[in-house]
Structure formats: C-alpha cells, structure tokens
Amino acid sequence: MLEINNLNASLGKFVLNVDHYSTGGRKNFIMGENGAGKSSFLKAISGIIDSTGEIILNGEHVEKLPPWKRRITYIPQNLLLFPQYNVRQNLAISIRYGHGDYNIYREVVDLMHLSDLLDKNTWELSGGQQQRVAVARAVISKPKLLLMDEPFSMQDERSRMSMVISVAELLERYDIDYIYVTHNSRDLELGFDTLSIMSNGRIIESVKSIEDLRYYESASLLDFRNVVRIDGKYYRLSERSVIPSDRGYPAICNRSGQGYVCSIRIGDENYFITSSVMADHFQFDLSSAKEMISSGESSA
Q1: How far is the first Cα of the chain from the last one, in angstroms, to the nearest whole number?
Q2: How far is CA 156 from the centre of its chain?
Q3: Distance between CA atoms of 161 and 140, rounded to whole angstroms?
Q4: Rounded distance, CA 281 to CA 243, Å?
Q5: What is the distance between the alpha carbons of residues 160 and 258, in angstroms, rounded to a whole number?
C-alpha cells in the first residue's frame, strides 16, 4: 500500500501539491486533463524529481531514498529504452543489476509476444512494440509498486485491451501493486480499486466506483457523461432529456471540441451533458426520459 501526505514539488511555474493520496488495493488508476500533473506526480513518487512530503510504501518511509532503492518502477511516456542494447539486453538489465526475476522474464516474453523481437534493436521497433518492451522490462524488475504512464497508448484497441488484461493478471500473480495513468476510460471497465482525478496539480477526488464520481474534470470520462440513474437503471440521454425535472437548473459550460460540456448540480449530484450550444440553463423533460425508459433506448 502507498500512502502520501503533503507531497509538494515545483517544476518551473507548475506546482504539484497533493495533500493526501493512498492506494486502495492492487489496481489504482489516475485520470485528468493534459497538464493536470499526472506524470509529475508519478515522477515525484518514484524520486525522479525532487519533492517534499511523506511517501510511505508498505509502511516504510521512502521519500529520502534515492530512486534505485525505493523498489518503485516508473514507465514514462517516452519509455527510456536503451538504444545501444537490443530487446533481450533491455529486458535483462534489471536481472543483471537489480531485483529482476528470470522466471518472470520468460513468462513476460511469451505473454507479450516478444520472442521474435529479442534480437532486434529498439530503434527498429514500432511505437507499440517499444511500449510492450518497456512494460515487460518494468514487470521483470519485480518492483513493490509499478507506475505506468499511459503504457499502451500506441496499441490498437484490441491489442491494448489484451495487454491491459494480461499485465493485470501478471501483476496479481506476482503481488505487484500498480498506479496506471490513462486517458482511455475503457481501461476502467476492467475494474479498479481506486480511481483518482487530478486537476491543477492536485488530487481532487478518489473513488472506488464510477457511481461515486462527482467531479468529471477529465475529457477522458466523457463516456460516463450524459448518463443518469433512473429507478436503479442507467440511461445515456440526449439534450432533450438529461435529468427528469420540470424546471431548468443553472449550468456551467466549457468548450470541448466543436461543442460544449455542461455541468449541472442538483442537490448533492453533478450531471453532465454534451451540447452544441452554450446555455445558461437547460430545461429537462421528464416525458422524453420516460419514453426512453419504456423503449429501452440508450440503456447503459
């Protein structure tokens, strides 16, 4: 388990300021807009950038340890493969110089379809192949905590989901916790122990279920907007029927692509709608929502 308290770091004009963060199990995800501080947060946890505050891993304070002694492995977006080595040599580095495990090496090579790439130079690989090598190398190092920064962003959708599932199973088998930064909300469909949302260098909320989300700051979560719970069922609604109500509510709208994403708060709940027009309020129509329920249209 990872626990963080009062973590602060400055990178130019950007300030990372995380009051508290803790993992809630094996699978932990972080989402947020570009520039929210996700990568900086992982770098601070791993010790790549200087920070102040407490970083406690499995009950041990590691904030004063150098990166190579923390047993925390970080996979950055630029992967940091060694261009002077081939794939086999890149994978074997942690076995030769660290805590790498040869049994994991053999399993990962097979699982991630790397057998035919072992003698290739890293610069000969596609972006997706390089990502697989970087993830495999990290798993082989057998860390106590694995930090992954959009590790499969260059994979096609089918390959990406297959890799996510395979790596999750492998990390479960070898008792490795992980924090996974993603912009793809489909990754959440595989389940998670915690989902944290970052904005402006802060963790603004952490939840254990999509149902508990209140602040949809990330455009990655658009798949979960325009969804409302009615009588225990979920429906994806249109501009004509967002929330069953007989009156309008104030809305806060922000441009998103060619349209707008608008947030409406009713009681203790936040609801969202994508709209083609800017509006100060929306008039929600219960009758059209009822029609959708009766027809089963847009049931999530």
Answers
A1: 33
A2: 17
A3: 20
A4: 12
A5: 28
Residues 50-91 have pLDDT tens digits of 999 999 999 999 999 999 899 999 988 777 888 888 999 999
Token pair 């904005």 is found at 199
Which residues does 24 contact at the CB level (< 8 Å), separation at least 6? 193, 194, 206, 208
| CA dist 240 → 64, 101, 265 (Å) | 56, 57, 17
CB neighbourhood size of 31 (10 A): 25
Contacting residues for 33 by C-beta, under 8 A, at least 6 apart: 199, 217, 218, 219
Per-residue pLDDT tens for 255-289?
655 666 666 665 555 666 666 656 555 544 444 44
CB neighbour class for 105 (10 Å; exposed up to 12, middle 13-18, buried from 19): buried
Top-confidence residue, 77 or 145: 145
Pairing of strands 177-181, 27-32: parallel
Cα dihedral 86, 91, 94, 97 sign: negative
Question: Per CATH, which fold does 2-210 belong to?
Answer: Rossmann fold (3.40.50)
pTM metric for this prediction: 0.73
Instruction: Mention every residue, 6+ apart, whose C-beta is less than 8 A from residue 127.
Output: 154
Pull the structure tokens for residue 215: 């602040």
> What burial class does residue 254 get, using C-beta atoms within 10 Å of its C-beta: 0-12 exposed, 13-18 middle, 19+ buried?
exposed
Amino acid residing at 113:
H
Domain ranges (residues) in the chain = 2-210, 226-295
C-alpha dihedral, 122 to 123 to 129 to 134, nearest 10°:
50
CB 219 within 8 A of CB 266: no
CB atoms inside a 10 Å sphere around CB 165 = 11
pLDDT of residue 242 exceeding 50: no
